[in-house]
Design brief:
The protein is mainly beta. The protein contains five helices and 25 strands. Strands 9-8-15-5-4-20-24-23 form an eight-stranded mixed beta sheet, with no helix packed on it.
């Protein structure tokens, strides 16, 4: 597949693992994802911005019989680690992406299945026995760890469930424990696909936007570091790179005055439907800030607004996921992008 680039140019004044819907069935041990040769994804209208992700689907049952199925939305796995802090929009909530879904225009109330792993072993029963919430970034989980019996805490450290850490106290910091387990969450709901009819499903959530405080792939006047990986992942082209060079040249310190924002969307699960293709696919990426640069891989991408870009395709086979790189000006006086 040919890979095309979408970039916007920027002039600066002087002054640095979501997922798509899939059909699933309840198997032994929990949910497993599966295909459905009866239900086709007739269309998908996907909108991605730093503030929200919305997806509108039309599914069609190609058979003469109603199809009862379970539809699942896998949330991204999150792992407790004091040394790393992932971008979590609502880190105190089990619904940490603010996920919502409607079916034929009516709000649905999906079930939430959560499992907890340490070293690949399910330790959910252990956490439940000690009344420890599953969300490793929630304050409630950290408070519960402070109340663990010493024998349990020692056992959990040995098993890789928690690690020793310092925690805030009214008098400063004191020894304590931090979550080190992995949380795997899946929203799911039972759905009926009537014979020879369409079903409209829409969902929305807040994306996990990663980032860095500067440009990680440009230093000392040249592209280096993670440049090769970024060029492949985000399809950065000459126009994009020249804009970065100009920004560095315009800054007396010699560094481009941008910070990175990164968004990843799991599109490949769209092949879990009948025929393995999406009948009509539309992707809209909105960079939000008119002064920002944006780069991602796509075919026949067109600019359709001051900050928005669109790609459409028929009988689309989702071979790759979508990775979006935004370079946002750290100087509010930056010039407008083209």
């Amino acid at each position: 597949m040919l890979r095309y680039i979408l970039t916007t140019a920027l002039a600066l004044s002087a002054a640095p693992a979501l997922a798509n819907d899939s059909v699933a069935e309840l198997g032994t041990g929990g949910l497993i994802l599966s295909r459905s040769d009866a239900v086709a994804m007739q269309s998908e209208d996907l909108f991605i911005s730093p503030q929200k992700v919305t997806v509108d689907y039309v599914f069609h049952n190609n058979t003469d019989k109603d199809v009862e199925a379970i539809v699942a939305f896998p949330m991204p796995d999150i792992s407790g680690d004091p040394e790393e802090m992932p971008a979590i929009p609502e880190n105190q909530s089990d619904n940490f992406l603010g996920f919502e879904v409607t079916i034929d225009g009516a709000p649905a109330k999906p079930e939430l299945e959560q499992k907890v792993f340490a070293l690949g072993i399910d330790v959910g029963t252990d956490l439940k026995a000690q009344n420890v919430p599953f969300n490793p970034f929630g304050d409630a989980a950290k408070a519960a760890l402070a109340k663990l019996p010493q024998a349990v805490a020692d056992d959990w450290v040995n098993r890789g469930i928690i690690i020793e850490d310092t925690v805030d106290d009214s008098g400063g910091q004191k020894p304590g424990y931090a979550p080190f387990w992995q949380l795997r969450s899946t929203y799911w709901w039972r759905s009926t696909f009537p014979a020879n009819k369409d079903v409209h499903v829409s969902h929305r959530y807040k994306p996990s936007v990663g980032g860095t405080s500067s440009v990680s792939f440009f230093n000392e006047g040249q592209f280096q570091g993670s440049y090769a990986a970024y060029k492949t992942r985000y399809c950065m082209d000459g126009t994009f790179e020249n804009a970065v060079r100009r920004a560095a040249k315009d800054n007396p310190d010699g560094y481009p005055k941008f910070y990175e924002s990164r968004i990843a969307y799991i599109l490949t699960t769209g092949g879990n439907w009948a025929a393995g293709t999406i009948g009509k696919f539309k992707l809209t990426v909105d960079k939000g800030n008119p002064k920002a640069l944006v780069s991602f891989c796509g075919d026949n991408v067109k600019k359709v607004g001051p900050t928005s870009f669109e790609m459409t395709a028929k009988d689309f086979y989702p071979e790759h996921d979508i990775d979006i790189l935004l370079l946002e000006p750290s100087d509010s006086n930056g010039g407008d992008a083209n």
